[in-house]
């Protein structure tokens, strides 16, 4: 099933949705986006769009930072997203990518005096990181962008150059993923994931002041750990050496789910195998994101797809 799009207020195959080559966001990174999962429940034959509203609210934050005027309310964005998925014809896990951007075809770096537009794409996503075996990571030589440079609280397109530099450096050096430190040397996050450490049986994760994206999966996992396992999370600065000494370590993200980190800078994390808390959390998380736990009903947008796309 080819990807499907909502573009200029119409639903269409992705191949028909085109923008001009002078579009401002293409040249200057002046857009912000989201990554949302539509999880397909084979048994119930329905999608669970996970934390849809939270994603659109975060995108609204990015739009405020970039002075993008969205012609939609959060409610409208949620219903357009739902409709797109219904019409898409998919019957499998999907990835939903909304993008709000400076759409004027104009030369000149700025945020003002430009038109804005909004689109959504629904597609499939190949496995992002190895959730079963875990990943080998390095500390990146690139530092995470600071709030005084490009605010990391929004998923701002231009920021992802920072992530891409780190990811490719890691990959070219034989690692699966990079861990970026903040400008002052504290653990920040992965190229597209938040990070958690298990130390003395407690969960530790960097705070927003260390320039992380405030991840929706991060928040989900903090709540699941507390509610389901009785484990509290401490949001505090972490040092690089704590990555080497932690009992367990894992990434969280919409694309990454909960990915165990089994090695950092050629040192095994804990036993070098997927840790006990990480795998317990993963099991709980995998059920919750399918929309099967009524305790977390507020996080779910459940829908059955229409028959088949023409
Ligand atoms: C840089 C970065 N950090 C963290 C995350 C995880 O955020 P979320 O759990 O909301 O997907 C993402 C993914 O969106 C990301 O791009």
CATH topology call of the largest domain: D-amino Acid Aminotransferase, Chain A, domain 2
Which structural class should the secondary elements be placed in?
Answer: alpha+beta
Helix content: 25-40%
Give, in order, the helices and strands.
EEHEEEHHEEEHEEEEHEHEEEHE
First CA to last CA: what distance?
11 Å
The number of strands is: 17
Main β-sheet description: 9 strands, mixed
CATH architecture assignment name of the largest domain: Alpha-Beta Barrel
- The Rg value, from CA coordinates, equals 20 Å
Low-confidence stretches: none
Average pLDDT for all residues = 96
CATH uppermost class of the largest domain: Alpha Beta
Provide the list of bound ligands, each named once.
pyridoxal-5'-phosphate
CATH superfamily membership of the largest domain, which one?
D-amino Acid Aminotransferase, subunit A, domain 2
For the record, the count of structural domains works out to: 2
Helix tally equals 7
Form type: globular
Strand proportion: 25-35%
Please tag this protein with its features.
D-amino Acid Aminotransferase, Chain A, domain 2; 9-stranded mixed sheet; binds pyridoxal-5'-phosphate; 8-stranded antiparallel sheet; globular; alpha+beta; 310 residues; D-amino Acid Aminotransferase, Chain A, domain 1; 7 helices; single chain; 29% strand
């Amino acid at each position: 099933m080819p990807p499907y799009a909502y573009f200029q207020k119409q639903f269409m195959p992705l191949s028909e949705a085109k923008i001009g080559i002078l579009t401002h966001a293409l040249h200057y990174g002046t857009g912000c986006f989201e990554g949302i999962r539509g999880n397909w429940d084979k048994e119930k034959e329905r999608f669970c769009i996970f934390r849809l509203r939270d994603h659109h609210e975060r995108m609204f934050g990015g739009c405020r930072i970039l002075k993008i005027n969205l012609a939609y309310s959060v409610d409208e964005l949620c219903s357009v997203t739902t409709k797109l998925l219904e019409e898409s014809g998919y019957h499998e896990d999907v990835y939903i990518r909304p993008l709000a951007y400076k759409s004027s075809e104009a030369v000149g770096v700025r945020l003002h005096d430009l038109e804005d537009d909004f689109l959504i794409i629904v597609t499939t996503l190949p496995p992002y990181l190895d959730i079963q075996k875990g990943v080998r990571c390095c500390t990146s030589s690139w530092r995470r962008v600071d709030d005084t440079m490009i605010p990391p609280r929004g998923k701002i397109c231009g920021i992802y150059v920072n992530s891409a530099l780190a990811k490719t450096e890691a990959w070219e050096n034989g690692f699966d993923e990079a861990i970026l430190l903040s400008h002052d040397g504290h653990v920040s996050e992965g190229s597209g994931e938040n990070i958690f450490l298990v130390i003395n049986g407690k969960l530790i994760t960097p705070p927003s002041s260390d320039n992380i994206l405030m991840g929706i999966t991060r928040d989900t996992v903090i709540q699941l750990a507390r509610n389901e396992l009785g484990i509290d999370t401490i949001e505090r600065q972490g040092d690089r050496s704590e990555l080497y000494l932690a009992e367990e370590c894992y990434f969280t993200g919409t694309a990454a789910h909960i990915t165990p980190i089994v090695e950092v800078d050629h040192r095994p994390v804990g036993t070098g195998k997927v840790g006990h808390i990480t795998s317990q959390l993963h099991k709980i998380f995998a059920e919750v994101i399918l929309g099967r736990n009524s305790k977390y009903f507020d996080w779910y947008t459940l829908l059955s797809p229409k028959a088949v796309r023409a």
